[in-house]
Amino acid sequence: MQRIGLALLLLAIASGPALAAPVALSADGEGSALIAPFWSVRGGHDALLSLRNNSDAATSAKLRLVEADGVEVLSLNVYLDAQDTWVAALTNAGTDQAPEDELITADATCILPAPTRDDAGVARIELPPLVHGHGYLEIIEMGRADFGLSIATTSWPDCDELAERFETGDWRDDPSVGLIPAIGWLSATVQIINVGVGGMVSPEVAALRGFSDIVQHTSPDSEVPNLSTAHTADTDAGRTESRVCDGEGCSVYAWNLPVEAVASVLAAQRFEASYSANPAIRGKAAFVYTRPLARFEGEAFGIDGNALLAARGRDAELRAGYDVCVPVPPVVGRPICGTRFIQGRRTRPVDVVHLGEPVTGAPERSLLGTLDALILETSITGIGVDDLIAGEFELLISQNTEGDDRVLTSADGQIVRGDPVVGFAVQQFSNGRLELPVGDPVLSNYRVVEPLIHLSIEPSGTEEE
């Protein structure tokens, strides 16, 4: 009897309302909002997406595919059964010069709008023309299934029935019918694969806990929910809470806008990653930093400041200073300095810095298929050949809080400095060619991914130099 009672209690908890909690970064990769910092379908790259429901209740999620300039190119509703995983791939069925970009899935998990499938059950969803061919993903858990039973609902009806609910059923007028708030047990992986060079990386997906304590289920074409629609206990009263943590502990702050609460838990002032661009081993490195909230910036919400780049050698010597440049990306031949800018002075929400041998416009030679990356060659004129061979690459968010720069300021006046950034570094080496028993030789390439290290700086009232 005790065991049965415990089981019923756990099931009641799983199917009950979500516990109110501030928005916070998840430590275990599970959450109710996920941000995958990068995908690419250029230069021979594909992206494999796996979205997992780790709970024992069926749940729904909104998936948004966003390109590097912040333009949303695809929105889907994904209906995951308990302990279900949905798998899809982003690929280019054409060429870089004449792309035919699409999302492909053979997974039986229901997605809406329901795509056409071939006899083998494979769906090919055509993407609109892409400007950059790379970007990021945001995934929001909208609500769990609950049809009035005393236990958690573990599976959804078939896809046709779910689609019909939006057409003539309960969800036509109220998409929240039959759902309860998200519990935050979604996780995801994105693997960026280049078969031609034998390279694969899987950047860390940022996960947020406590993103919403209400049902946010909507039709597939709805603009919400998204990363700007966080909801905590007092959001309706004009205060959305977040838990912001640093090396000294965690604090809970209230914000006037839900998007500010999300920004506060992602904000940092410095990001570092190690790299090697040694030509002796054909070393290449890419430094990716994504601002997933940039597309929500406007009159009400925005973050200002300069994003300054610097490289340090392995001896910790600063290779290029934090000199403020004119507000345009430098051409090859200039030192590394204020190459990217935030809010109005910045080029796009996803930026990539490429270090290593020149790309020279050939997509197959770009480490992640990003032809519009800032390219820093290892033999830049005016910089010694060894200056950019190996070391630490650093991004500093420089803000003038006494000037016109807008910074994150909570409802009670607490300033959280920095910029909400998620990103990673990719390293590739090659030690020559491998002779195979049969067929042509292949390059022996090695790729590794490194998460960006978030570093804090003591706050001050003026811009750092």
Question: Would you write up a description of this structure?
Answer:
The chain is mainly beta. It has three helices and 30 strands. The chain has helices spanning 2-15, 159-167, 258-266, and strands at 24-25, 33-40, 45-53, 59-67, 72-80, 85-92, 101-105, 110-112, 123-126, 134-145, 179-180, 186-194, 199-201, 206-209, 240-246, 249-255, 267-268, 270-276, 284-290, 306-313, 340-341, 350-356, 374-377, 390-398, 408-409, 415-416, 419-420, 422-434, 442-451, 453-455. Strands 1, 2, 4, 5, 8, 10, 11 and 14 form an eight-stranded antiparallel beta sheet that branches. Strands 9-7-6-3-12-13 form a six-stranded antiparallel beta sheet, with no helix packed on it. A hairpin with a 5-residue loop joins strand 25 (408-409) and strand 26 (415-416). The chain is globular. The N and C termini lie far apart (68 Å). The model is unreliable at 1-18, 320-346, 377-385 and 457-465 (pLDDT under 50).
Name some characteristics of this structure.
465 residues; mainly beta; six-stranded antiparallel β-sheet; 38% strand; disordered N terminus
Low-pLDDT ranges: 1-18, 320-346, 377-385, 457-465
Number of strands: 30
Percent range of helical residues: under 10%
**Beta strand %:** 35-45%
Structural class: mainly beta
What does the largest sheet look like?
Answer: 8 strands, antiparallel
Average pLDDT, rounded to a whole number, is: 82
Compute the CA-based radius of gyration: 23 Å
Distance between the termini: 68 Å
How many helices? The count is: 3
Outline = globular
